[in-house]
C-alpha cells in the first residue's frame, strides 16, 4: 500500500465500482510515474530568518571568520629591505611561508603538516563533543551560503516574499530584484577571489596591478576561479554541496557517538504533535504544535523531527525558531536542543540522564592534541637561524695531487635564516695539518663566506691533507667535523663528515 | 523480473539489495543537476576535440583548430630560456677569462654552463666527475700536460691534441722499442730509473744504468729532473699521477710502443662562449693554476 493508495481509499469520492457491475481493482502499475524517480529534481528552499541565541552566534562567527579572511593579507610586518612586508604571505615564488615573525622554509614544511594534524585532531575532538559544529558554524560553504542567503533576503525579502516573487511572472520589479541579487553575489565572489590571491602576493602591490591591468595572468586566473566557485557554490548550489558533494557529512557521522551533543528534537516532550487551540490543556499531548517553523528556517530544508540525518548540518537555527514559538505558546524552551542519544533514550524511558564528556574517545583526542602541540612547540622553540649541510663528493671520492697529498671535495650549503646578511668562516676539526680552500675564492676572501638575508648559499670546499699527515691517518676513511662560524656573534655549528683516501 | 525490493523503514527509500556484514546501502535518486553537469562535460570534451590535438589517424592526427602543439611549446620555452640567458652570454663573450672569474655572478653562470656542456661533451671520456681513466686525464688534479692556466686550458679545448685541427697540439712520445731505438734491456733500465724518480725503483743497479739513458733520450722533452715540459706536453714523471697506469708494465709499454693520446678539437664544434665556460669549469674543478 502506498501513500497514494491510502489517500485514494480515504478519499470520500473513492468508488468500489468502475461501472455498474464492474468492480474496480485497486492496483497501480509498478513503473507508474510517481514510483519511477530516476533523478531527483531539486526542490527550492526558502530559509526563513530565525531570531535567537544561535543565530547571533552564527552572525558573530561569520563576522570573525570573514573579517580574518579579508583583512589578514593587508596586515604589515617589517622584515627589512629585500624581504616582503606582508604579515601573512604564502610566497610560493620565493619558496617561503611568512606568518608574522615566523618564516617557514621548504625544508621545514613539516611544521605546517603538524599544524594541519593539530587542526584535524581539534576538529575530531569538537565533533566528538558537540557534533557538526564545523558544518553548522565555521565551514566556508556554510558561512558564504549564509551570506548569500542574507543578500537574497536583503534584495528579495524574507521567505514568503521570496516564494511569492518566484511565482510572479517576469516584470521590471522581479528583474531588478533578481538582477541585484546576482550582481551582489558576483561582487562577493570577486571580493573573495581577490582576497584569496592576496595571500600569495603582496596585497597593496597586487591590488594596484589588478587595478591597472598589469597583474600576472595567474592572479587573474585564480581570482576568476574563486569568484566563479564562490558564486556557484554559495549562491546557486548551496545545500546541494553539503548533501551531494562534500565528503565530510559522511565522515562526521562516524565521528560522534551516543554521548555527543547533537541538535535533536525531543520526541518524549514533543509527541504526539498537533495544532493547539487557545485555552486547551497540554496533558495527553506533546509540546510540538506542528507549526513547521523548524523546517521553514532550515537552510538545508529538512525536518529535524525526522531524527538525525545526513542533511542536517546542525546549525541550530531550528532551536532558535522553536524556542520563539514555545515562548509564544507559554511552554518551556528547548523542545529542540543540543542533546545526546543516551540522554534522549533516558528521558524517553524515565531513567536519570547521564552526561559523559570525558570518555575514551575524547580522552584520546585530547591526549593526541597535547602530544602534537608539544612536538610542534618543541620544534618551533628549537628552530635555529642557521642550517648547514655538508655533502662529500662521490665522484671522485678523492684526488691525488702532484705533491702526493690527497684532496677531498665537499659541497657546503649554508642557510641563513635571519633577516640580516651574515658572514661565516669555515674551519675543521679532527684532521691535523689539513688545508682548506673554497672554489672560486681568492686570497682576499679566503675562507669567509657572505650570505644574504634569508638565503641559501652553496660553496665548494676543498680539504687537502699532505703526505706526512696522511701517514698519521689509519684506514681509508677518517671522520672529522666541518665548523661553520658566524663571524658576527661567534656562534658556530659543527657537522660531521669524513675524509677519504686510497687504500693505504 | 525484478526481485522484491526492500524499502528502508526510516527513509522510505529502496536499498540496492546488497548487504555487507549487515550494512545496507540506500538507493537514493541522483540529483538531476548532476546529469546536466555530465552533459556539459561531454560538450566540453567535444569542444576540446575540435580545438586541440585529439584523435590519432593512421599516419597523422587531428591537430585542432587552435594549432596547439606541445613540441612548439617546448621550442618556445627553450627560445625564451636562451633569450633570458642572452645577457650573460653576451657578457661572457665580451669579457676575458680572468675577468669572468673575478665577477661572482658571471662566474656562477659560466660554471653552470660549463657543467652542462661538460656532461654533454666531455664526460664520455673524462668521466662524470672528470676523474678520468687510463688514457684520459683526471681534470680534478693539479697535474697538467699542457698547462693549467685558464688560457692554456682554453687552447687545449679549442685545438685539441693530435686532432684533425690545423693548429692542433702535437706531442711525440717515441716508440723506442718498436722503432728499435733502444734494446729491451735498456728499456728496462730506463723504466727503473723513471720509477726511482717517485721512489718506487725495484733494481738499484738498473737505476744507475738508466740514469744515463734518461739523460740521453728522455731529458730533452721530460726535463733533466723529469719534471716535464708543458709546452711540449711531456708529463711530470716524478709525481704519483700516471695517465696510463702507475705499474712498471705500463711504463715499459709507454717506452716500448710510445703514446699519442687524442683530444678532439672543439673549436669548430662548440661556440666560443661555451668553450670559455668549459675552460672556467675545468679550471675551477680544484686544480687550475
Q: What does the model show?
A:
The complex is a heterodimer of chains A (504) and B (289). Chain A is an alpha+beta fold. Among the domains of chain A are: 3-35, no CATH class; 258-349, no CATH class; 386-500, Immunoglobulins (Immunoglobulin-like), CATH 2.60.40. Chain A has helices at residues 3-10, 53-71, 110-130, 133-138, 140-156, 159-167, 172-198, 203-212, 217-237, 239-245, 248-255, 267-270, 293-297, 317-329, 341-349, 360-381, 467-472, and strands at residues 17-19, 22-23, 39-40, 88-91, 96-99, 102-104, 262-265, 336-339, 386-392, 399-400, 406-416, 422-429, 435-438, 448-451, 455-465, 477-486, 492-500. In chain A, the strands form five sheets. In chain A, strands 9, 10, 11, 13 and 15 form a five-stranded antiparallel beta sheet that branches. In chain A, strands 14-12-16-17 form a four-stranded antiparallel beta sheet, with no helix packed on it. In chain A, a hairpin with a 2-residue loop joins β5 and β6. Chain A is elongated. Among the domains of chain B are: 72-166 and 264-283, Cytochrome Bc1 Complex, Chain D, domain 2; 184-257, Orthogonal Bundle (Cytochrome Bc1 Complex, Chain D, domain 2). In chain B, 47% of the residues lie in helices and 4% in strands. The relative contact order of chain B is 0.12. The chains are: A alpha+beta (504), B mainly alpha (289). At the A-B interface, β3 and β10 of A face β3, α1 and α4 of B.
Amino acid at each position: 500500500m502506498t501513500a497514494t493508495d491510502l489517500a485514494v481509499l480515504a478519499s470520500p469520492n473513492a468508488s468500489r465500482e468502475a461501472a455498474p457491475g464492474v468492480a474496480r481493482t485497486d492496483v497501480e502499475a509498478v513503473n507508474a510515474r510517481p514510483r519511477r524517480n530516476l533523478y531527483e529534481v531539486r526542490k527550492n528552499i526558502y530559509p526563513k530568518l530565525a531570531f535567537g541565541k544561535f543565530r547571533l552566534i552564527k552572525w558573530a562567527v561569520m563576522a570573525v571568520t570573514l573579517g580574518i579572511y579579508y583583512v589578514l593579507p593587508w596586515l604589515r610586518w617589517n622584515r627589512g629591505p629585500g624581504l616582503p612586508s606582508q604579515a601573512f604571505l604564502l610566497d610560493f615564488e620565493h619558496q617561503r611561508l611568512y606568518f608574522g615573525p615566523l618564516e617557514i622554509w621548504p625544508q621545514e614544511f613539516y611544521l605546517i603538516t603538524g599544524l594541519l594534524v593539530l587542526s584535524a585532531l581539534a576538529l575530531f575532538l569538537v565533533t566528538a563533543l558537540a557534533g557538526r559544529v564545523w558544518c553548522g558554524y565555521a565551514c566556508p560553504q556554510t558561512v558564504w551560503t549564509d551570506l548569500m542567503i542574507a543578500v537574497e533576503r536583503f534584495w528579495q525579502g524574507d521567505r514568503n516574499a521570496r516564494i511569492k516573487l518566484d511565482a510572479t511572472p517576469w516584470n521590471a520589479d522581479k528583474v531588478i530584484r533578481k538582477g541585484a541579487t546576482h550582481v551582489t553575489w558576483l561582487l562577493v565572489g570577486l571580493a573573495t577571489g581577490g582576497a584569496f590571491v592576496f595571500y600569495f602576493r603582496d596585497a597593496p602591490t597586487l591590488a594596484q596591478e589588478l587595478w591597472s591591468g598589469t597583474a600576472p595572468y595567474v592572479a587573474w586566473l585564480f581570482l576568476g576561479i574563486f569568484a566563479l566557485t564562490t558564486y556557484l557554490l554559495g549562491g546557486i548550489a548551496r545545500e546541494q554541496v553539503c548533501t551531494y558533494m562534500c565528503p565530510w557529512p559522511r565522515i562526521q557521522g562516524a565521528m560522534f557517538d551516543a554521548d555527543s551533543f547533537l541538535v535533536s528534537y525531543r520526541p518524549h516532550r514533543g509527541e504526539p504533535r498537533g495544532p493547539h487551540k487557545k485555552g486547551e490543556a497540554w496533558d495527553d499531548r506533546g509540546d510540538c504544535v506542528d507549526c513547521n517553523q523548524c523546517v521553514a528556517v532550515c537552510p538545508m530544508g529538512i525536518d529535524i523531527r525526522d531524527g538525525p540525518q545526513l542533511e542536517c548540518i546542525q546549525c541550530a537555527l531550528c532551536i532558535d525558531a522553536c524556542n520563539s514559538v514555545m515562548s509564544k505558546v507559554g511552554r518551556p524552551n528547548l523542545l529542540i536542543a543540543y542533546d545526546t542519544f543516551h540522554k534522549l533514550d533516558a528521558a524517553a524511558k524515565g531513567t536519570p540522564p547521564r552526561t559523559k564528556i570525558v570518555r575514551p574517545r575524547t580522552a584520546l583526542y585530547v591526549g593526541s592534541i597535547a602530544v602534537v602541540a608539544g612536538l610542534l612547540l618543541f620544534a618551533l622553540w628549537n628552530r635555529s637561524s642557521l642550517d648547514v649541510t655538508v655533502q662529500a663528493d662521490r665522484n671522485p671520492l678523492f684526488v691525488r695531487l702532484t705533491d702526493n697529498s690527497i684532496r677531498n671535495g665537499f659541497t657546503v650549503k649554508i642557510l641563513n635564516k635571519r633577516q640580516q646578511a651574515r658572514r661565516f668562516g669555515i674551519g675543521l676539526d679532527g684532521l691535523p695539518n689539513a688545508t682548506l680552500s673554497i672554489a672560486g675564492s681568492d686570497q682576499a676572501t679566503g675562507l669567509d663566506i657572505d650570505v644574504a638575508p634569508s638565503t641559501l648559499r652553496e660553496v665548494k670546499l676543498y680539504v687537502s691533507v699532505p703526505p706526512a699527515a696522511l701517514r698519521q691517518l689509519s684506514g681509508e676513511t677518517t671522520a672529522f667535523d666541518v665548523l661553520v662560524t658566524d663571524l658576527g656573534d661567534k656562534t658556530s655549528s659543527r657537522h660531521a663528515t669524513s675524509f677519504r683516501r686510497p687504500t693505504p | 523480473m525484478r526481485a522484491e525490493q526492500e524499502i528502508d523503514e526510516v527513509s522510505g527509500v529502496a536499498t540496492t539489495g546488497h548487504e555487507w556484514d549487515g550494512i545496507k546501502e540506500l538507493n537514493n535518486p541522483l540529483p538531476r543537476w548532476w546529469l546536466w553537469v555530465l552533459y556539459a562535460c561531454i560538450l566540453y570534451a567535444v569542444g576540446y576535440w575540435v580545438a586541440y590535438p585529439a584523435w590519432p589517424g593512421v599516419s597523422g592526427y587531428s591537430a585542432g583548430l587552435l594549432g596547439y602543439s606541445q613540441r612548439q611549446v617546448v621550442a618556445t620555452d627553450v627560445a625564451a630560456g636562451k633569450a633570458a640567458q642572452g645577457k650573460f652570454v653576451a657578457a661572457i663573450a665580451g669579457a676575458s677569462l680572468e675577468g669572468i672569474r673575478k665577477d661572482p655572478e658571471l662566474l656562477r653562470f659560466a660554471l653552470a654552463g660549463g657543467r652542462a656542456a661538460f656532461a654533454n661533451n666531455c664526460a664520455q671520456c673524462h668521466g662524470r666527475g672528470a676523474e678520468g681513466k687510463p688514457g684520459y686525464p683526471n681534470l680534478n688534479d693539479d697535474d697538467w700536460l699542457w698547462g693549467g692556466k685558464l688560457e692554456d686550458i682554453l687552447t687545449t679545448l679549442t685545438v685539441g691534441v693530435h686532432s684533425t685541427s690545423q693548429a692542433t697540439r702535437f706531442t711525440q712520445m717515441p716508440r723506442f722499442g718498436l722503432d728499435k731505438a733502444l734494446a729491451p734491456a735498456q728499456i728496462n733500465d730506463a723504466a727503473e730509473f723513471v720509477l726511482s724518480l717517485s721512489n718506487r725503483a725495484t733494481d738499484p743497479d738498473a737505476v744507475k744504468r738508466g740514469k744515463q739513458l734518461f739523460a740521453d733520450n728522455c731529458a730533452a722533452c721530460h726535463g733533466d729532473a723529469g719534471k716535464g715540459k708543458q709546452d711540449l706536453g711531456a708529463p711530470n714523471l716524478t709525481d704519483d699521477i700516471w695517465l696510463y697506469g702507475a705499474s712498471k708494465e705500463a711504463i715499459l709499454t709507454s717506452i716500448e710502443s710510445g703514446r699519442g693520446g687524442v683530444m678532439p678539437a672543439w673549436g669548430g664544434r662548440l661556440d666560443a662562449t661555451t668553450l670559455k665556460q668549459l675552460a672556467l669549469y675545468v679550471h675551477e674543478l680544484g686544480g687550475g693554476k
